[in-house]
Write a structure and sequence with these properties.
Helices cover 68% and strands 0% of the residues. The chain is globular, with a radius of gyration of 18 Å.
Length: 191
């Protein structure tokens, strides 16, 4: 049985994009490591929302649905045969936007240069997505479990491993930033 296809109102779509568009894009960017692919994924996610028949019980349900679809779309993109042969601009080492580039490009360049973002990007995908959802999107482990399709205990284990790997990366002699000890203990107590 397939889900009922409906057409969403313009008001609903504007709200969804305004409230959750940045979250969808950020998760897609962390997963794909490519600005162009992240934009494509975000567009695909909102196109799917436009015609999907899910009856949302609230804004949190909508956000969880959007993030789950984003993670799934990133997995689909990664499995595509052509994606293994395409090098993204991020992988090519693009550091700064061209002169006269948009403010968005400058913000993305600044984000890419941040040591914490670099440590997050260096994580394996399964650790990266749970860390991003927990620390950036402030999802609980139960919400993350539903989004990524794993048990909450697995999510907590992945968060622990992500924190450990990020700390090691940030405390390495080549890094200029460290994670404060209190943040680590907070994350463990609430994971």
């Amino acid at each position: 049985m397939t889900a009922k296809k409906i057409k969403r109102t313009e008001k609903f779509m504007r709200h969804a994009m305004a409230a959750h568009g940045n979250s969808v894009y950020l998760v897609a960017l962390a997963q794909t490591r490519s600005e162009a692919d992240a934009q494509d994924v975000a567009q695909d996610v909102f196109c799917r929302l436009l015609t999907d028949g899910t009856a949302f019980t609230g804004d949190e349900h909508l956000k969880a649905w959007l993030l789950r679809v984003t993670v799934n779309r990133c997995h689909e993109l990664r499995r595509a045969p052509w994606s293994r042969r395409v090098e993204s601009a991020d992988d090519a080492g693009r550091e700064l936007p061209a002169p006269g580039a948009s403010t968005e490009d400058a913000a993305l360049a600044e984000l890419r240069a941040d040591p914490v973002w670099q440590a997050l990007r260096a994580l394996p995908e399964k650790l990266r997505v749970v860390a991003l959802l927990h620390y950036v999107e402030e999802c609980t482990t139960e919400e993350i479990a539903r989004i990524v399709g794993s048990p909450p205990a697995t999510v907590r284990t992945r968060l622990h491993r992500a924190r450990k790997q990020m700390r090691e990366t940030l405390e390495s002699p080549t890094s200029t930033t460290t994670i404060p000890a209190q943040e680590e203990s907070y994350g463990q107590a609430h994971a």
